[in-house]
Every structure is written in structure tokens, then in C-alpha cells.
Amino acid sequence: MRNKSKILVIGALGQMGTELTAALREKYGWQNVLGADIHPATAELQEKGPYFKLNVLNKTMLGRVVSNLNVGQIYHLAAVLSANSETDPFRAWEINMQGLLNVLHVSRKYQMDKVFWPSSIAIFGPASMRAACPQHVGGDPMTVYGIGKQAGEFWCRYYYQQYGLDVRSIRFPGLVSYTAKPGGGTTDYAVEIFDAAVQTGSYQCYLKENTGLPMMYMPDAIRATLELMESPEDKLSVRTSYNLAAINFTPRELAAEITKHIPDFKISYSPDHRQHIADSWPSSIDDRFARHEWGWRPKFKLSDMVSDMLCHLRKEVYA
Ligand code: NAD
Q1: Residues 17 and 113 in one domain
Q2: Is the CB of 10 under 6 A from ligand 1?
Q3: Percent of the chain topping pLDDT 90
Q4: What is the CATH number of the domain that holds 66?
Q5: 87, 133: one domain
Q6: Is residue 1 a part of any domain in this protein?
Q7: Is the N or the C terminus of the chain less surrounded, counting Cβ atoms within 10 Å?
Q8: Which residue numbers are catalytic?
Q9: Which protein residue's CA is at the shortest distance from atom 9 of ligand 1?
Q10: Which domain holds residue 107?
Q11: CA of 276 to the centre of ligand 1 (A)
Q12: Which tens digit of pLDDT belongs to each residue from 141-196?
């Protein structure tokens, strides 16, 4: 990282940011990874490592942080997720698009070594292939979140091609984790179901039982991010965002796997507006570019993820 030694994570308190910040601190040293989010700093947060309040829409403040604190890499995770974006599309557009543009602008100005920004399977839509959706296919996003991700991918490629800014990106599927609550995405059911199974033994799912979606356990998502960021630049041909796949399942299949551990677990279905979004997304993703170019391999199958989630929830969250 030349003379700029610090890593800045924006959106550090979110579902992904919580675990990515911890993983980066473990790898690069806690003092070298600065966590930032729109929420105020608390003593508890600062105990884990440097943390400060930052609104990514404040470009001047972002520039000051980057230049004064010797930042050489930015992981930009701050966003409004798919389902929440639909309730206030213009606010979501501003945070998701202007936030990314601010990060790209500041990264170019202060010559970041690398930038990471996650995209999503939400760039796909009804005209995309339902199964094994390929890397290079025109997007067809139906949500304001997906439109922003699609546009953001092209902005990332533009900054790479025009200005040589090394921006790297992954199109994540739905992420499952236990450390932080999900942030209002269409795939949140796959996190909520575990809390409900452990706490009450039953769950009412807002998607239909046979809604198959691509998903990933958070440890795989964190490892993928670190592996992509460590890959030699000349290996990477995709400068929009890499398709990435791990597990595909329906709510019924997930519930059946949970029932192996909690035999009395009951699930019911009451689809809401999120069904429409889920129906527009592919049920599986072709990630051969990530596999060939930087060696991506998922580790967690559905059964591994369910065992691990329940074990951690019982031991650490609801002990
Ligand atoms: P999240 O909603 O859990 O976290 C986002 C964080 O950004 C929150 O802590 C929030 O406080 C912060 N934030 C919001 N507005 C901000 C602002 N103006 N300035 C600074 N911080 C702000 O989201 P997540 O699940 O951690 O997602 C992280 C990234 O990964 C996002 O870009 C998201 O689109 C992408 N992604 C997530 C999933 C998933 O299933 N969670 C799937 C695909 C892609």
C-alpha cells in the first residue's frame, strides 16, 4: 500500500460491514482499519478499533478523512438495500449513487491504491436468464436499487478505464449472517428465519415457498472480498462487477434443513411486495469468470450454513 497505510470501511456497522471490518482488522491490524458509518461513535464501537461518524454524501468530509488519515484503500459498503429503497426511491438513489460517485471522485483525487464496492444480483431482471445467469448479459433491473447497482458498475469501469482507478466489485447474492441484523433487502427472510427458529420455533415467510434465489453465507462473502482485493490486477478482466455464486435454495428447502436441527420448527407463507422483486431475479448465477480469474470457490453448502448459523446463534446471541 505504498506510503498510504490505512483502510477505510464506509458502512462499517451494516450486515456486511460488521464482519468485513473485523476480518480486515485481523488481517492488517486493528489500528490500520478505520470504520465509518452514519451512526455516531460510541465508546463500545471505538473499543474495537478506530471508528467515526461519516455521511458518505458529505464529499468534503470524506476527502478530509482520506487525506488526513493516510487512507490508501476504501471499501464502500454504505447503501439503502433493495426492499427499503422501494419505499423512498429518490433518497435511495441519492445515497446509493451520489455516495458511490463521491467515493470514486475522492479516490481518484487522493490516488487510492484500490477501492471495493459491492454490486448485487439486483442488476438482473425479467429479461435475464433465470438459471445460471451469465456474467456478460445486459442488466434488466426492476428496482431503483438494481438500477443504481447497474449504473454504479458502469461508473466503476469508467473510472478504471479513464483514470486508472483500481475499483473492484462483486455482484453478491443474498447474504446470510448472525452478527448484525439485515438491512432491508429482499433476501432478509433467510436471516430472520434463524432468529425465529431459535426464539419462537416458527416463522411466517414473506416469499412463496418455492422462490429459489442465489444466496451466500457471510464467511464466504468476506473471504471472496479479500481474495478479489488481493488478486493481481492483470488477472482481472471484469471491471464492472463479478458474478459470484455459492448456494441456491427456496424457503421450503431452507426450512427443511432447519427442521433437521429443530424438529418442531414450523413455517407459514404470506407473500408481500418483496415477492415481486424476488420473482424478477435469477434463481442461480454462472460465476465462471470469478472461478477462472481469481480462483473463487465457495466453502459453505446449505447444510453447513444451517449448522453453523444455529450453533453461533445458540452460543453467542441467544445463550
Ligand atoms: P446494511 O444496510 O446492513 O448496511 C449499510 C450500512 O450503511 C448501514 O450501517 C448504514 O448505517 C450505512 N449507511 C447508510 N447510509 C449512509 C450514509 N449516507 N453514510 C454512511 N453510512 C451510511 O447493508 P449490507 O447488507 O451490509 O450491504 C453492504 C453492501 O453490500 C451494500 O452495497 C449492498 O448493496 C451490498 N449487498 C448486500 C447484500 C445483502 O444481502 N446484504 C446483497 C448484495 C449486495
Answers
A1: yes
A2: yes
A3: 93
A4: 3.40.50.720
A5: yes
A6: no
A7: C
A8: 145
A9: 14
A10: 6-173+217-243
A11: 22
A12: 999 999 999 999 999 999 999 999 999 999 999 999 999 888 899 999 999 999 99
> For residue 169, which of 267, 238, 97, 72 has the smallest C-alpha distance?
238
Residue 268 belongs to domain with CATH number: 3.90.25
Read off the pLDDT of residues 224-280 as tens digits, 9 standing for 90 and up: 999 999 999 999 999 999 999 999 999 999 999 999 999 999 999 999 999 999 999
Distance separating alpha carbons of residues 221 and 147, to the nearest angstrom: 22
Q: What's the pLDDT score for residue 3?
A: 60
Is residue 295 a part of any domain in this protein?
no
Query: Do residues 15 and 150 both lie within one domain?
Result: yes
- Which pairs count as long-range contacts for 311-317, CB under 8 Å and 24+ apart, including other chains? 312/178, 313/178, 313/194, 313/195, 313/198, 314/198, 316/178, 317/178, 317/195, 317/198
Please state, rounded to an integer, the average pLDDT across all residues of the chain: 96
Do residues 114 and 62 share a domain?
A: yes
How many distinct structural domains can be found in the chain? 2
Q: How far is the CA of 242 from the centre of ligand 1 (A)?
A: 18
